[in-house]
Amino acid sequence: MKTDIILSGVGGQGILSIAAAIGEAALKEGLYMKQAEVHGMSQRGGDVQSNLRLSDQPIASDLIPLGHADLIISLEPMESLRYLPYLNKEGWLVTNSQPFINIPNYPEMEKVNAELNKLPHKVVLDVEAIAKEAGSIRAANIVMLGAATPFLGLEYEKIEEGVRSIFARKGEEIVAMNLKALKAGYEIAQSKA
Questions:
Q1: What is the Cα–Cα distance from 117 to 190, expressed in whole angstroms?
Q2: What is the pLDDT, as a whole number, of residue 72?
Q3: CA distance 107 to 101
Q4: pLDDT, tens digit, 9 for 90 and up, residues 151-191
Q5: Strand order in the sheet with 47-55
Q6: Which of 55, 104, 172, 191 has the highest local Cβ count within 10 Å?
């Protein structure tokens, strides 16, 4: 088993929480894991990217070579395009449909969507709308995690445990809301996978 994942988006979207939940799940399954983070700009609005590698064998490098990512999880559609050269031919892109316009020359969404539509394996969803329905727009990243779960090579229950673990200190209400968001994203991806 080997899964190479690129997580991308902008600062403040919760990418590192997604990585933490996947990491918890991978460790519970007894897998090896390496993670490399590149924060571009650490404040809200700067691009954020992380390489996450999971395997049942030891992993030599924490960086994913071009054309080798099995999955790109992106909370921002233009950011997903930035990392497409890393995606392998059979890889999946799971991305938010709604832009976070943080630069004056942000491309027209029609052009971004035209590029996304060229991909054979993708799940594109409005994670903010789904998160709002699940209880809080702040859980958009966990909706995205749920949508990516079918492509991780990890059991859904292990991802659920990972989410429970990273939010436990915030109380049962926050845990329950995030689990609801996770399930909402997962169910949408199941219908598209």
A1: 19
A2: 98
A3: 9
A4: 999 999 999 999 999 999 999 999 999 999 999 999 998 87
A5: 32-38, 47-55, 2-10, 69-74, 87-96, 122-125
A6: 55
